Amino acid sequence: MLRPWRVSGAFRFYSYRPLIRSAQFFDSSRALQTSVPTDRVPLRKQLKQDAKGLKAQKKLRKEAEEASRQKWELTVGVEIHAQLDTETKLFSRQSIPIADEGGFGSPPGTGAATSTSDIPNSNVSLFDLAFPGSQPEFQAATLLPALRAAIALKCQIQPVSRFDRKHYFYQDQPAGYQITQYYEPFARHGYVDLFDYDGIAPEDGDRVRVDIKQVQLEQDTAKSQEYPPSTQLLDFNRVSHPLIEIITMPQIHTPATAAACVRKLQAILQSCGAVTTGMELGGLRADVNVSIRRRGETAELCQYNGVSGLGQRTEIKNLSSFKAVEDAIIAEKNRQIAVLESGGVVEGETRGWTIGSTETRKLRGKEGAVDYRYMPDPDIPPLRIGEDLISQLSGDLPASPDSLVALLVGPEYGLPIDDAKPLIELDDGARLEYYQDVVDILREIQVDSNAQIHATLARMAGNWVLHELGGLLTKTDRAWDADIVPAQSLAHLVDQLQQKRITGSTAKLVLASVFDGDRRPIPQLLEEDGLLLRPLSREEYVALAEAAIALNPQMVEQIRQKNQRGKLGWFVGQMMRTGEKGRVEAPKAEEILRELILEK
Ligand SMILES: Nc1ncnc2c1ncn2[C@@H]1O[C@H](COP(=O)(O)OP(=O)(O)OP(=O)(O)O)[C@@H](O)[C@H]1O
Ligand SMILES: [Mg+2]
Ligand SMILES: [Mg+2]
Q: Which of 69, 99, 116 lies at the terminal end of a domain, its last residue?
């Protein structure tokens, strides 16, 4: 069940947190000032002691956490509500405007998304508002993204499914009931595999499979905005937007793995073009169900869909970030442990979570106290889904995030997993597309190169797309746009670098000027600005190295006595600064320094 956003309360902790931080800082510096005249503790020593104290505290916390983990087993099941990317609402022809920002790009499919800048209450039909006499008209096209999602989640699509009414009164639900699929959902028995690269908890090993009990189609509710103490505004644009609810089995046992599961589900839904936006824009919301039980004991009475021996669950509704999922589960687990350890009983209830908080808070009482009076919707006929449609959609499904990871870390691209993951996830797939453009151009330029060089080029391209270009975007606070640095330019830059015609630092300078709008072709730019590497002779390197050494003989001694090779970098930096721009190659400079400093 969906609940409106709760804005009140969110402000409190945030507004005080900076003050709490600076108060702590102020205290310790004051303590320092007063202690200086008497104890004369040098600042560095004080800082070291503080750091040691913090480390000890962290260790204690970790030990306590581990002790509680040994004693209590956490169980989590997740429900995800995702807005489908459709042109109309679920039961009316009311159109949904194309998003002007923040959507998942234009995935295969209908390409529409609810715009965040819509005028409130402008996209509503009579049925959406439950006007008397209005009738539902199931919009068959809304089923397509739902099916793509269910197929991508390896579900068995049900040949016949039905819609039911779930009754409750709330101002965001004009009909007094939500149309959902309670008894016969359209998809069942799927699963999602989570790997170590998805960020699962180390104690879960390198792979966790989470079964998906079912995926059901249902209506979204209106959006409400609270203006305490007594005003609440309602925007019905969202009402009856098609949603899927994905329900996992209670098979997750760590908070990090629960967050990884939600992140992975979002990535899968995004990759098959099923959804409008991600959690950050409210297109995906998660409810987490949390219970604990003593390890080795199954005395508790709760069971769920054939899994028995579970502890009493509580449900935390409407989480809107991966971090919130993890933090809310940690807080709720600790609360339940405290209740049971003090001899209390965990009540089945619905709880809420405020970002930045350390505790979940009770929203509604006992589970089961609400009687939704589910009944089949008499106005909507059963949904029949043919095998032919399923097999066509299955055949058209784009590569899954896992197969993309396998491809990118495989021999053809050879990317480290830490580069492959963000490439896939950033900018709704646009970064990956750009990367592939760069690699394709590189392979055209170096058409005669062997497979090993192709992999080297692909690895270099990954680094430049992600870290160098990404770094410039972060520094200038600009959003992703493939035109800022044309793929052609970046490919030629990487090619020149790989062919050792320019140094790494020259490449960075050139990237920055292309980023700032220089549109000359890279070979021309390098030629005109005299940036091509004219290798220095050995004598020239030695002269530069000797000049750098003369600047800091003490450091030379240190390096020699303690064999501190790491400190050679300082001299390399000096040589790069004093040498002619773009001509000093760092590895060669280091080689000469080694000879002069360490081997003499
Ligand atoms: N004892 C338990 N501990 C942890 N998770 C549980 C437990 N029992 C059930 N769950 C999880 O709770 C979720 C129940 O979702 P489901 O949609 O079936 O029911 P619901 O929460 O009553 O429905 P809704 O919130 O949509 O009205 C599932 O993800 C399931 O895995
Ligand atoms: Mg549910
Ligand atoms: Mg629920």
A: 69
561-578: pLDDT as tens digits: 887 878 899 999 999 999
Q: Report the distance separating Cα 457 and Cα 459, nearest Å.
A: 5
Task: State which residues form the domain around 42.
Answer: 10-69
User: Nearest Cα to 155, choosing from 73, 90, 67, 217?
Assistant: 217
389 lies in a domain? Answer: no
Q: Are 430 and 496 members of one domain?
A: yes
What span, in angstroms and rounded, lies between the C-alpha atoms of 551 and 477? 38
C-alpha span between 252 and 178 (Å, rounded):
29
User: Does the structure show a pLDDT above 60 at 451?
Assistant: yes
Phi then psi dihedrals of residue 83, to 5 deg: -75, 125
**CB proximity list for 421: less than 8 A, separation 6 or greater:** 197, 405
Using the CB atoms, write b or e for 210-229: b if 16+ within 10 Å.
bbbbbbbbbbbbbbbeeeee
Same domain assignment for residues 174 and 287: yes
CB atoms within 10 A of CB 332: 27
Q: How many CA atoms lie within 13 A of 333 on its CB side?
A: 25
C-alpha 92: how far from chain center: 33
Query: Under a CB-based contact definition with an 8 Å cutoff, are residues 146 and 186 in contact?
Result: yes
Contact between residue 314 and residue 284 where contact means Cβ atoms under 8 Å apart: no
pLDDT tens-digit readout, 159-174? 999 999 999 999 999 9
Determine if ligand 1 sits within 6 Å of the CB of residue 201: no
Predicted TM-score of the model (pTM): 0.78
Calculate how far, in angstroms, residue 344's C-alpha sits from the geometric centre of ligand 2: 27
| 77 pocket-lining for ligand 1 (C-beta < 6 Å) | yes
Is residue 283 in contact with ligand 1, taking CB distance under 6 Å? no
The predicted pLDDT at position 298 comes to 65
Tokens for 473, please give them.
């975007």
Dist CA 283 CA 113 (whole Å): 9
Residue nearest to atom 24 of ligand 1 (CA): 1
Residue 391, domain member (yes or no): no
In contact, 142 and 84? CB cutoff 8 Å: yes
Q: Please state the domain count of the chain.
A: 4
